[in-house]
């Protein structure tokens, strides 16, 4: 389950603008690699929309089925707001609707399974 928590205006290459919805997943506990202490966090992602600002504002607080997943991408620079440090990231977070989550897990299970079948009394292995 994700919640729409905000929206932002973005510009296309042609100069026209559109709005993205900022969605946030549930609370997660993460352990610091430096201190070993746990802290609470939540993944966020942005969804492009066809809505105007008034509609986006009205949608804040709406919950939707799905999750936010980490996805590999081309390296890019990111500035840490608190410190001003510039780091290189190779991932982003994207929204995955619930039906896609089910399809993905079914596909992954199917893809990695190996089935035995009989053909003319010979048992062969097929990597599906």
Identify the notable features of this structure and list them briefly.
globular, single chain, two-stranded antiparallel sheet
Concise overview:
With 128 residues, this protein is of the alpha+beta class. Helices cover 17% and strands 54% of the residues. The protein has 2 helices and 10 strands, in the order E-E-E-E-E-H-E-E-E-H-E-E.
Topology:
Layout (H helix, E strand, L loop, with lengths): L1 E10 L5 E8 L3 E4 L6 E4 L2 E5 L4 H7 L3 E2 L2 E13 L6 E11 L1 H15 L1 E6 L2 E6 L1
Antiparallel strand pairs: 1-2, 1-6, 2-5, 3-4, 7-8, 9-10
Helical content stands at 10-25%
The largest pleated sheet is described as:
4 strands, antiparallel
The overall number of domains is 1
The total of helices stands at 2
Strand percentage lies at over 45%
Radius of gyration using CA atoms only: 21 Å
Main sheet: strand order: 5-2-1-6
Shape: globular
Structural class: alpha+beta
Low-confidence stretches: 109-128
Query: What is the residue-mean pLDDT, rounded to a whole number?
Result: 82
Secondary-structure element series? EEEEEHEEEHEE
State the distance separating the first and last CA atoms.
Answer: 32 Å
Q: How many extended strands? A: 10
């Amino acid at each position: 389950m994700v919640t729409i928590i905000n929206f932002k205006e973005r510009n296309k290459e042609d100069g026209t603008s559109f709005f993205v919805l900022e969605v946030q997943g549930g609370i997660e506990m993460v352990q610091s690699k430096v201190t070993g202490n746990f802290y609470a966090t939540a993944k966020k992602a942005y969804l492009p929309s066809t809505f105007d600002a008034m509609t986006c504002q009205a949608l804040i607080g709406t919950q939707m089925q799905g999750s936010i997943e980490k996805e590999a991408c081309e390296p890019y620079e990111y500035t840490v707001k608190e410190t001003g440090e510039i780091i290189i990231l190779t991932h982003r977070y994207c929204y995955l609707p619930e039906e896609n989550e089910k399809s993905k897990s079914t596909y992954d299970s199917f893809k990695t399974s190996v089935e035995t079948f009989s053909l003319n009394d010979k048992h062969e292995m097929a990597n599906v």
